[in-house]
Amino acid sequence: MFIEIKLAAEEDIPIVHKLMLEAFEEYRFIDVPSSALNESLETLQLSFKNGSENALLCLVKGLPIGSSRFTLKDDSLYFSRVSVSPNARGKGVAKAMLLWLEKYANDHCKNKMECRVRASLTKNISLYESLGYFVSKEEVVKNPNGFLVKTVVMEKTLDAKNFSFN
C-alpha cells in the first residue's frame, strides 16, 4: 500500500476535520467523551488560517485516510488529533504519519516531538512507545468540555542522523 502524506492546504481542512470526527467517534461513549467530537470546522479553519496550527493529510490512491494536527514550538513539534479512518487501521498509517512528522520537525530544526495522550488509551501509548516515545509527565487536565482527564505527556528526542536528506 503506497501512502502519500502531505502538508494540508487550506482547502484540505474540511477533510482533516471529517477524518478527525470519524476517527474519534469511538471515544464518544467513554467516561469522559473526547472534546475532539465538539470541535467545529470553523475553529479548525481559524487556527489554520492564523498559523497557530498546521495539519497533515494522509492519502492512499488519492483517498484521504488519515490526518494529524501539529504546532512548531521553540525546540519541538507538538502533535495532536492523530486520526486514522477505522477501515484503514492496523496498516501502518499512524506510524507513517508520525515518521513524516518527525522528519518535518527535523527539517525545521526541532529536536523533540511531544504529544498528550489520555492515560486510559493504552493502545495509543503503546504505539508511541514502539516508536521511541516515553512518558515524561503525568497530569490531570481540564478538557475544553470542562471535564478532568488523566493524561500523559509523551516525548521523543530526535536524532538528525536518522533522517536522509535527498
Annotate the secondary structure layout.
Layout: E1 4-7, H1 13-24, H2 41-49, E2 54-60, E3 63-72, E4 76-84, H3 93-107, E5 112-118, H4 122-130, E6 134-142, E7 148-157
Parallel strand pairs: 4-5
Antiparallel strand pairs: 1-2, 2-3, 3-4, 5-7, 6-7
- Count of discrete alpha- or pi-helical segments spanning 4 or more residues: 4
Number of strands: 7
Model regions low in confidence, pLDDT < 50 over at least 5 residues: none
Number of separate domains: 1
Could you give the distance between the termini?
23 Å
Order of helices and strands: EHHEEEHEHEE
User: How would you characterize the largest beta sheet?
Assistant: 7 strands, mixed
Summary keywords:
166 residues; seven-stranded mixed beta sheet; alpha+beta; single chain
Q: What would you say about this model in short?
A:
The chain is α+β, with helices and mostly antiparallel strands and 166 residues long. It contains four helices and seven strands. Strands 1-2-3-4-5-7-6 form a seven-stranded mixed β-sheet.
